[in-house]
Structures are given as structure tokens and as C-alpha cells.
Amino acid sequence: MTNKEKNFASAVVYIHNAENRVEIFLTTIMEVMEENFEHSEIICVNDSSDDNSLNLIKKVSVLASTTSISVINMSYFHGLELSMNAGVDMSIGDFVFEFDNTYVSASKDGV
Fold first, then answer.
1. Coiled-coil annotation: which residues (predicted)?
2. From 68's CA, which of 36, 54, 60, 79 has a CA 20 to 30 Å away?
């Protein structure tokens, strides 16, 4: 049994035409949240993407067990700052982590 943080954690993720990388990014964030927090949420702010990003977010959300994954769909392109503000306003976490892009860099081991 592992000791998990009891405080609620929120992750706000900016999404705009990120279909190439959104699935691996959200899967990684979800695994980290579920490993370290008893209760958590991921809020994806879809800034009027016109690619397959939304469907990939839905695909990943099915895999979540203790993390709630939700989407805020912006009606037109608002840009990074306004979109992230909308996500932070909706978050309920004691901790709020903000991700303004969905790039995941490789570790030193190349994994």
C-alpha cells in the first residue's frame, strides 16, 4: 500500500490542435495523478481545435479510475491566457497544476 496525498489536485491542460501528442500526454499526467493523489481531476481546455484532439481526450478519459477528466470547449479561438484562466476558474483542487502545452520530453535515459 502506498501513501497518497489526501489533498485534491487539479491539472489544467491547454489543448489546441494537439492530436499528435495529446493522448500520450494525458495518459502520462493521468498515471502520475493517480499514483500520487487519492483524488484528482484533469481539465482539458479545448481552444477551438479543428483536429481529432477532442476524440482522443475522450478515449483517454475512459482509462481513468480515480481521476476525473473533463473538457471545456471554447466556442472560438481565445488563445492561451484566456483559455487557461477558464480552466483554472473551473478547477476545485487544493493544488492546481497548469500545462500550457502537451509536449512530453524524453528522459535522460531516452525512454
1. none
2. 79
pLDDT tens profile 43-89:
999 999 999 999 999 999 999 999 999 999 999 999 999 999 999 99
Instruction: Evaluate whether 16 touches 49 at the Cβ level (below 8 Å).
Output: yes
In Å, what is the CA distance from 71 to each residue of 44, 94, 107? 5, 19, 29
Cβ(54)–Cβ(46) below 8 Å: yes
**Nearest-angstrom CA–CA distance, 27 and 20:** 13
Contact 92, 5 (CB under 8 A): no
**Dist CA 38 CA 7 (whole Å):** 8
C-beta separation of 48 from 78 below 8 A: yes
Q: Give backbone dihedrals phi and psi of 52, rounded to 5 degrees, phi first.
A: -95, 15
